[in-house]
Each structure stands twice: as structure tokens, then as C-alpha cells.
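Notes from the pairing session

We agreed to fold both candidates in a single pass and log them together. This is the raw record for the first candidate, unedited. Please don't reformat it; downstream parsing expects exactly this layout.

Candidate A
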Amino acid sequence: MMKDYTDTARLIHSAMERRYACKRFSVEKKISEEDLNLILEAGRLSPSSFGIEHWHFFVTRDKKILDRLYEACFAQENIRTAAALITIGVRTAPAYHPESDFIRSRSERFPGGYPQFVDEYRGYWDFLVQTGSVESWARAQGYIAAANMMTSAASLGIDSCAIEGYKEESVLAILQLPRRDWRVSLLVPLGYRDEPVREKIRMPKESIVTEITL
């Protein structure tokens, strides 16, 4: 059984070694429904703070919409050439209030339901409010889902990029999402590379890992 886990870990590492920030995709090659669903499933299964699953994944394959989003993302070529674009949206701050319908609906799934959940959650909500970090906390959850989807894509031979440069109001308007309800966490264009593969550059483990002991 241990060997099975080791083999799986090696496959994950291989996918992570393959992945890089692809800047241009082939406009000829499409992503199959099966592969796209596997990538989205990696996002759905991702961990999130308090298990709330803050995200919603808005999928775009329409060329006209991609062209508009290209302009809203400062003319980044991977947006316009993507076979599919996943915009990770998260709710605005009021959705995470302990007494909101969103929190009630999410927490009712857990053992003990809403009453038990809210007792543990309320203190953290107060902390988020006091530090002014409710929406930054929500956006950060989208990064977790994005990382898992990009690794999943790489395991399927599909390239990707995490896009943080965008005009949020424009993106929301193009996707017809009301600004009072939504924020953009990340955009993740997907496709098959149409460019030379760039070297993966990372710091050596010894320079970024420090074990702390007493």
C-alpha cells in the first residue's frame, strides 16, 4: 500500500514539474469535456477555511467573451488564446456574516449543523472584521482551488497560468456578475502550449526550508 502512495506522489510531483505559466495557447486544440470536468473536480475537492467553499467557477469558452476578457486583463495573450478560461469568483463580505443565508446553507451540511458551526465560526468572523480582511481571506481560498486545478491540468498534459492582473469591475461586467455580490479571486486560462517550454526556476530547498527546534 505504501508503494501505491509513493507512486501517486511521484505522479503529482511530475505534474508540478511540467507546469509553468503558459503565455500563449494553441487556438486549434480543444480541451475535452472529460478533462475539463476532471480539472473542475480538482477545484471542487480543494480545502477551504472552515470548509465553506467560498468559490464559484465561471467557465468561458466563447471566443467573443474571451476577446473581451483579454482587454479586461491588460491584453494578456493567454486569455485570448485559451481553450477554456476559469474565473474564480468569491462572494463579497456580507455573505460570510455568521447569520447570512450563505453561511447557514454551507454549515448545515456538517455534523452538528449550523448551531455547532456558528459557535466556532463567530470568533473568527470577528477577527476578520477587526482586521479588515474578510474579502482578502475569501480571495485567498480561490488560490488554493486554482493551484489544485493547475496541477490537475498538468497531469493531463494541459497547460495553464494564474492571472492576477485584471480590471475587476470590467471582468465582473463581462460575466454579468453584480459587484455588490462578487469579487474575482483569480483567472485560470487553460489550453495546449503554443510556445517554447521555459525552464522552471525555483530556489533550492535548503534556502527556503528551516526546521525550528527547541
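Candidate B (folded immediately after A)
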Amino acid sequence: MDGYEFLNIYGSIIIIILMIPNIIFALKCKEGFQTKWNHKVILTMEQIGRFGCIGFMIFNIPGTYFGWIFEEAYILYFIVNGLLLFLYYLIWIIYFKKESLFKALSLSIIPSILFLFDGIVTQSILLILAALLFAPSHILISYKNVK
């Protein structure tokens, strides 16, 4: 990734890996993704941030993406993403059908950190902005849905 590639293969793979447990859960527990707390502004912010994060993980928009923050940053990128995805899967496995505040917050905080970290490490301005929109709204919605 030199800062000039339009398609981010690594980001695409991370998004696919991140989405697998969500898709499995949605197929097995159709009632599991219901939003109990309905605040239109926060829900809209979350959706804009979510689709922005997904899109800017996959596509590098010229002029808003500048590549690795330092020469060997890709090593840190793979280590941190690997650890975050491992934790994300571990929580999904342990708490698959259990509702808890810990599960809700963990499964919203981990991808929020991942998106923000990846935006910083790859110097993707739009990914950083999308993550800053997504993280607080997603975490708040997750919290309110459990409480």
C-alpha cells in the first residue's frame, strides 16, 4: 500500500473477517439486531459512520489517503488488526446468544478502535472522520439497547 492504490485489499479482507460473525448471528438470531433505543439523529450518525468506515476501509480516495504513517507501519497494522479481530471473535464465540452489557460494549468498541486505528496508520482522513462519527454513536446505541 503506497498511498496511490484505489482498492485497499488489506482493508477489504479485514471488513470481510469483521462481518462474518455478524452475518452468522443475523441468520441464526433474526431478532438479535433489533434497535430498542430509537434516536433518529444518533442512528443516522451511526449509519453514515458505519458505511463510511466500511467504504473507506475498502477504497482509498485520492487526496484523502496518504499511505502508511511510517515505513514499517504495516507490521503494526497487521499485529493490531489481528489482535482486535481475535478479541472480537472470542467475544462473539463466548457470548453468541447471551445478552450482556459487556458483550454489547465490547462488540461496539473493538470495531470502533479498529477503524480509527486503521485510519490513523494509513493516513486516511475520510476513514478517521467516519470512525469519529461511528464510534460514539455506535457505542451509545449499543449501551442504550442493553440498558
